[in-house]
Every structure is written in C-alpha cells, then in structure tokens.
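hey can u check if this looks right to u? its 261 residues, i copy pasted from the old doc so theres a chance i mangled smth
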Amino acid sequence: MTYCVGILVRGGLAMLADTRTNAGLDNVSSYRKLRVIDAGPGRTMVVASAGSLSVTQAAMTRLTDAMLLATVEGGTEREGAPETLATAPTMFRAATLIGQALHAARAAVDEAVGGDRVSTSATLLFGGCIAGRKPRLFLIYASGNFIECQPDTPYLQIGEHKYGKPILDRVVQFDTPIAEAVKVALISFTSTMRSNLAVGLPIDLMVLRNGDTDPELIHRITDDDDYYRELTERWSSAMRHATASIPLPPYGAMTGQGVLV
C-alpha cells in the first residue's frame, strides 16, 4: 500500500508520494513512487503510482521506451511517427496515452500471472504542464479511464487515502497558497502514517508554480527532516489541545471528569 496526493490550486501544483512498499509483514522496503518524466524541453510531466509495482513499472517502461524508440528511428517529427508524451499537444492527450499504457500493462501482467491470486490493481496521479500553460492534474485508473482535478475539490488522492482526506477537505481550497497546501498535505501524511504502517517515509515532493515550465522544487523528506518532525509534533499537540478545549457532552449524568455515572 502507499499514499499519494496531488493538490492543484491557483498558484500551482504540488504532488507528494510516500515510498513504502511491502511483500508481507516481514518484508518492508522503500521504492520511489513519484517520477518526473523526461518528455523534452518545456514539458513537466510527473506521475505518482499506487498499487501493483509490476503493473506501474511496466506502464512507465512502455511510455519511456516509446519516446526512446521514436528518437532512435529518426525523431518524433517525421510523418507517421507514433504519438508519445514528447509530442502530445495537451496534458489531456498525454493522460490518454498514459491510460492506454496502464491498461495494456495490466492486461499483460494479468495474462502472465494466469490463475495466481495476485492483485494487479493500480492507479496513477498524473500532473504537469506543457509550454507554460496552467498545470493540470489527473487520476488515471487501471482500465485506462481518468478524471481531472477541478477547483471545487482541488486535490486528488490514491492509495491509503482515508486518513488524510479529512484534513484536506477542511482546509484546502482553490485559493489556498501553494506553500500552505504543501503544509496541509504533509499533515495528511503524518496523520496517515500514525494510523497505517503501510505508509511511511521518505516522502517525495514536487512543486510546479503556475506559469513555470520547470518544477520549482523536487525534494525528498526523510526521517531526519527537522521541519517534518516539528510539523508532526505540533500537529499532535494541537489536536490534543483542541480536544481538551471542547466542552464535555451535556448528555445524561456526565461528571466534570467526563465519567458516565
């Protein structure tokens, strides 16, 4: 399991993903789930993945190999050259290509594993921009279909999302500054990690400002990160203080100590 979140606000796009992966209770390791795709100059394309590693790896390999093959065979501009992420005219079209690759990769893995009881479910978050246009963010399902992030709900999640969703719902709006959105996203991560051991550090972070063609920040947060440690401690303390400051329920015969008598 994993947890990934993308937030698209007026100021830009932030994408975050943990790195926890496991093949059993006693086999826990880390694997990068946030990938920046080299699709050529003027193109920022970032993918975060959750689910079957074999499926998501195969899908990404199909996409990168297609770009490499087009270059080897004489460039992507020649007549009849296959469309790739390096030539897709819009982020919507790029999301379509990624959806097709994910669908094909899952079908191939399904055929290979046959009757084995192996989960091949996988989902992707895909975000970025082309030629400095406004960033866009998509959630792509294993069957190849996808939805796009909209201002009414300016974030998308995949993986173990239920623990982090409440804080995003309460705080993040389209006008939220991008730095504030990153802070809230990190709170959603520490809340998730507190409740689910299948999500863990390091966290990979990418920030793309509206109007830019290259990411402002690509950063990995590890367990010795001072800011993340302080954020975790202060959030836990704030939650305890907020709970203590709320009056006890006035129902029945409850005492001032909160004991039902």
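Helices lie at 53-72, 91-113, 165-171, 178-195, 226-245.
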